[in-house]
């Protein structure tokens, strides 16, 4: 390799590193701006009550994310709602608790739930055959969001759908 080719390769590598760095910064800025816009629109999440009744249904699986209703691909990025994780979904008489690994739990009051149904995709996660459990609920601010949960055992969806009737 001659010195001209080496210099050209080094310049190309430096330009490539700078371009990738700029793209990553632009993506992070976009994520942050989206989070700020949504924080104003969504407000605070409901707090879990001090006491709840006995759990009637518990399912292990994966939290797929939240989206602004009715758009299945408009991911909520406020706080840690935009990050997927393993989770446990539990139904109580007062509402539904979604406990996520390394994230704050999400409490969905029973009176806020507008629908529990099967969806094919949510927040960029698409499941072809069986689907994802989608919980549509209204926040105290009045905004509606969908929360997606994919169970480890697909036969557990029936109990959640029957309880929604």
UniProtKB/TrEMBL annotation:
Keywords: Membrane, Transmembrane, Transmembrane helix. The chain crosses the membrane at residues 6-28. It comes from the Bacteria. It holds the Pfam family bPH_11. Residues 43-162 form the PH domain. InterPro entries: PH_bac. The keyword Transmembrane applies. This is Transporter. It comes from Mycobacterium alsense. The lineage of its organism: Bacteria, Bacillati, Actinomycetota, Actinomycetes, Mycobacteriales.
